UniProtKB/TrEMBL annotation:
Top-level EC class as recorded in UniProt: hydrolase
Signal peptide: none
InterPro entries named in the record: FBPase_C_dom, FBPase_class-1, FBPase_N, FBPtase
Any Pfam family matching the protein: FBPase
Domain Fructose-1-6-bisphosphatase class I N-terminal: 86-267
EC number: 3.1.3.11
GO biological process, one term: fructose 6-phosphate metabolic process
GO cellular component: cytosol
Catalytic activity from the UniProt record: beta-D-fructose 1,6-bisphosphate + H2O = beta-D-fructose 6-phosphate + phosphate
Family: Belongs to the FBPase class 1 family.
Record protein name field: fructose-bisphosphatase
Amino acid sequence: MQQLLSPTISYPSPLFHLTSHPFPPKPHFCPTHRLSFYPPPKIASFSGFFAKSQMGMTAAAAAGDGANGFSSLMDYVGKGGLDVGDDLLVLLYHIQFACKRIAALVASPFNSALGKHSALTGASSGAAASDRDKPKPLDIVANEIILSSLRNSGKVSVMASEEDDAPIWINDDGPFVVVLDPLDGSRNIDASIPTGTIFGVYNRLTELDNQPTEEKALLNSLQSGRKLVAAGYVLYSSATILCASFGSGTHAFTLDHSTGDFILTHPSIRIPPRGQIYSVNDARYFDWPEGLRQYIDTVRQGKGKFPKKYSARYICSLVADFHRTVLYGGIAMNPRDHLRLVYEANPLSYLAEQAGGKGSDGKSRILSIQPVKLHQRLPLFLGSLEDIDELESYGDVQQKVNPGYEV
């Protein structure tokens, strides 16, 4: 019987070769020592930085006018674009470096190992509230990553974080103050729900330099949102997106994992003056004040000033809900005294206004509110200008009744 021979098929050599270990070793976390991270290289100035093409880009691509027309975050904000100045550019470099590390940590299959270390879970936080608001291990690690990068930048005098009871004085000569929520939405991270980092940047108040360290650190952190010189958020989702404003519009950059660069994908974002989406936890409807219930009932029936029926979209992740609202319009809201003025409301309201939208507490413009406490909470309504104005016209929209939610 004749034997049938299969044709010989040759395959190209693989680009990557497996080692003898099919899985990487589990990372080791030592809770008895301060967490340390690989810092980015110190960059004192960006003069000549782009000419040398140190980010692996050609001169044409670095100028943003190459064949593909793409521009990286550092190019767009640098001398070839907005030209925010060397100091702010250096700071931004270190912030985006830290956020890339956080993005990798969030996506790691080993991040659940952090929860096994009680020394981390017992850390202090400014949110002295229920178990729901206690910092999660990933929040603390993200906080340490950003603190390490800010120290290394040499451009930050004080960092105020949602995860710390008090501001941290870093450098007497740093020209900037950074306020931040290092990892918002982390309580849902096990379900792969999007999370984010929120940050705001102020100039250091030099008139306070002769004050005691604790006092000047606190007062620098309690600046009005109107004094922000930059703000942004990073969304960790199907894509990692950094959305920022430096006082000249709101722009979004998407992380290209093949090069490690944030690439400009949404220049000069404009929030539609009207949206057709509201984002709020409808399960709390019966705890809402009458004005808020009337507003929601009206717009979802299409009987408001915008004669279309609104749809509900609620992720329960502030950065994700706000990001969708920035792109599509409408309102993202939490009517309770829950979100923090310094770390969340001010930076996001700054971004909303720079995109033609509005941030409100239901009665007043967020950026007009003077913080009096570091972890001050308030209701927050963000989104389309006309939608926010219509909501405020109902008067009673702030929920003061809080039965104590555990989920």
